[in-house]
User: Fold this.
Amino acid sequence: MAISSADTVTATLFYFTPPADGSEPYNYITWDPKWGVKQRNWEKEPHEVQIENLRGKEHTVELDTAGFEYHRRAAAHKTFENDEVVQREYYPESIELVKELTGASRVVPFDHTIRRRTNEPEGEAEDTPDKRKPVPLVHIDQTTQSAIARVHRHLPAEDVPKLLAGRFQIINLWRPISHPAYDWPLALCDYRSVDPAHDLVPTKLKYPDRDGETYSVKFNPGYRWKYLRGMEPDEFVLIKCFDSRDDGKTATFTPHTAFEDPTTPKDAPLRESIELRLLVFYDQGTELGSHDPTHLYDYFGLHVDPCGECYVLWYIFVLAGCIW
Assistant:
């Protein structure tokens, strides 16, 4: 399989265009033509864009700045064939992984999607929960309203007020399954290139028993698109879908989409991947990046392994009142 080394690719991404009549956009998740309404009342709009390959530059993006970050850590669970086994084996290891990487005090997975692309024509391919197709549409999984609704839906009612009073996030843990994802990889947009007030449109997701909501994304020529060519099964990306910390500096979401990479080798296997969505909660002062001793070393220009003297230095700062 011949692998491209290009730093940037040119590809077509599909964006949202609002309903012409100015009505609230919607999309039926389960739909029947007999209902006499359109499945959705808006259209997709293609635009050709540049997407930078971050292979070898993975460290240049972080969750709280770009809205996503890459890591390498093999999963103990390998098969991803049975939902019950995925929940029993993959969920617990993912909880501990996200806690370790973010400093979260509580992590609650609430669903997962397994995608296995096929070459069947549109409309004929099986699209079941364990064989979803990649989504070729720029979108953000959650709005503020739907993120808060998720907390109410998945956490005990007595815990909700305290959890909503603190910082919480929704994070998507995405990784390939069984082979590298050269086919229809995932493109992610740097949060710092997005204009939330202009670019995002809340869109209803209509389920049989309820309405959900996501952000549709309009085209903006200033977007900075990134991807990691040929992500391997022991690599993963954390994608921020929502963050309650709205301070004007911290990334609060990540537009993303599957796309057809023109550099994909012709003999590359079809994409298989899993995305696990998690509610992520923090006790005050537990986020890594603000209070992690290794970050303090970076801040003060000290390059020592995070061992004993690092933690001594951290506690000195605590006692001196530098940490709060």
